[in-house]
């Protein structure tokens, strides 16, 4: 594996004749300097990982590209600085030009052309802040430089159009395909944008399956680094269809810290493992309340429950999001709190960074694949979208 990367790296480089003579700056020396930079997630150096590309040396000017696996890499600036320092310290180097670039580590087919990673946000029950987390995670990933889409699969409580300020903007189709709504930089697809607000969604299982299939596969997502799926609470038909139809990079589980809610969390996690979906980790939402008068942290829903889960299931607590009135206000006003400055936005940034890192690691260990759909029963293949037939 390492050998392959090294060969690939070597092939990509174009050493100039005469530069590898003794005492002169050559590609091997530059690579050696760069190999001191270790990716903390993969625990290998960036040369071994094949991240270094297009190395050129010309009259003391060293230029190369560092190609990461995601544009939202939380430590990309750190890598750039380290590379500039390591190469800049070599004798004979007059200038270092580093270009930062990103491409998925492996071509995983998500079944959705152009979509690199699909991440589901799940919760054992409603009201714990799952949609709020999904929306703010999407915003934070975008702020880190990623192209992000959001599929609101919470068909029975589609709140994301309101949370992203596009309530009432209708979803369009073009040539029989869904055109996502551009919601503050995020490509949003929600049933809430396709039906009148006061109309309840009443679907039997087969229609729920058709909804997931059509709203994902018949959507023009374009190029996306991350597609976030806001799942309905619980372990019903829609989560099942999402896991069957979409090769998920993994899922993160949102819950509040108190015991009762944690039992629901357990059911969600068990479903993931049954469906062979990677568990990215846990988000403890409404983790604590900062008293606006004295600044003291109050554990409204208790403490430590998520840590116990993290230990039991061998996955980290990715973030603890405080209970904060600005989160609720931001969602209601259509301006997610992740856009605002302050500790709440910081907490969502931490979450996004942790998700990026976990996705990279778990995809290597267990590449995403869809569970596949068992032979459908009567009506199971019923199309949800009425795509006009070509004459
Ligand atoms: P779910 O998707 O789990 O049903 P929502 O994301 O719709 O839950 O959140 C339920 C309510 O709680 C919303 O009014 C939301 O604004 C609010 N909320 C969610 N997380 C927080 C938080 N950390 N602090 C304050 N309010 C929150």
What fold name stands as the CATH topology of the largest domain?
Answer: Rossmann fold
Report the CATH architecture of the largest domain.
Answer: 3-Layer(aba) Sandwich
Number of helices, counting only DSSP H or I runs of 4 residues or more: 11
Order of helices and strands: HHEEEEHEEHEHEEEEHEHEHEEHEHH
User: How far apart are the first and last residues' alpha carbons, in Å?
Assistant: 51 Å
Q: Could you say which overall geometry the principal axes of the C-alpha atoms support?
A: globular
Q: Which hetero compounds are present in the coordinates?
A: adenosine-5'-diphosphate
CATH superfamily of the largest domain: P-loop containing nucleotide triphosphate hydrolases
Structural class of the helices, strands and pairings? alpha/beta
Average pLDDT over all residues: 84
- Domain count, please report it: 2
- Report the count of strand segments: 16
Percent range for β-strand residues: 15-25%
**What gyration radius follows from the Cα positions, in whole Å?**
23 Å
Uncertain residue segments:
1-21, 375-383, 386-391
Oligomeric description of these chains: single chain
């Amino acid at each position: 594996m390492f050998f392959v990367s090294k060969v690939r790296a070597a092939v990509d480089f174009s050493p100039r004749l005469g530069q590898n003579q003794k005492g002169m700056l050559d590609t091997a020396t530059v690579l050696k300097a760069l190999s001191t930079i270790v990716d903390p997630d993969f625990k290998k150096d960036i040369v071994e990982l094949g991240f270094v590309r297009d190395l050129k040396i010309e009259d003391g000017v060293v230029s190369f590209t560092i190609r990461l696996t995601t544009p939202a890499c939380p430590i990309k600036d750190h890598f750039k600085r380290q590379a500039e320092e390591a190469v800049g310290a070599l004798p004979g180097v007059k200038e270092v030009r580093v270009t930062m670039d990103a491409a998925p580590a492996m071509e995983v087919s998500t079944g959705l052309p152009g979509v690199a990673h699909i991440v589901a946000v799940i919760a054992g029950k409603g009201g714990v802040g799952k949609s709020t987390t999904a929306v703010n995670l999407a915003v934070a990933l975008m702020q880190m430089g990623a192209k992000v889409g959001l599929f609101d699969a919470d068909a029975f409580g589609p709140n994301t159009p309101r949370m992203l300020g596009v309530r009432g903007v209708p979803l369009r189709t073009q040539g029989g395909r869904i055109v996502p709504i551009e919601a503050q930089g995020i490509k949003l697809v929600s049933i809430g944008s396709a039906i009148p607000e006061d109309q309840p969604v009443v679907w039997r299982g087969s229609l729920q399956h058709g909804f997931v299939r059509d709203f994902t596969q018949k959507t023009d997502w374009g190029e996306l680094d991350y597609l976030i799926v806001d799942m309905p609470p619980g372990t019903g038909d829609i989560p099942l269809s999402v896991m069957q139809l979409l090769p998920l990079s993994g899922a993160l589980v949102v819950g509040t810290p108190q015991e009762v809610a944690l039992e629901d969390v357990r059911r969600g996690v068990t479903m993931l493992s049954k469906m062979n979906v990677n568990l990215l980790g846990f988000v403890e939402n409404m983790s604590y309340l900062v008293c606006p008068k004295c600044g003291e942290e109050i554990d409204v829903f208790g403490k430590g429950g998520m840590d116990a889960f993290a230990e039991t299931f061998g996955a980290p607590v990715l973030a603890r999001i405080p209970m904060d009135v600005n989160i609720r206000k931001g969602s209601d006003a259509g301006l997610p709190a992740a856009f605002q400055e302050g500790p709440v936005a910081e907490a969502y940034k931490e979450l996004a960074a942790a998700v990026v890192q976990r996705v990279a690691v778990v995809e290597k260990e267990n590449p995403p694949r869809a569970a596949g759909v068992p032979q459908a029963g009567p009506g199971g293949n019923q199309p949800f979208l009425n795509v006009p037939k070509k004459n």
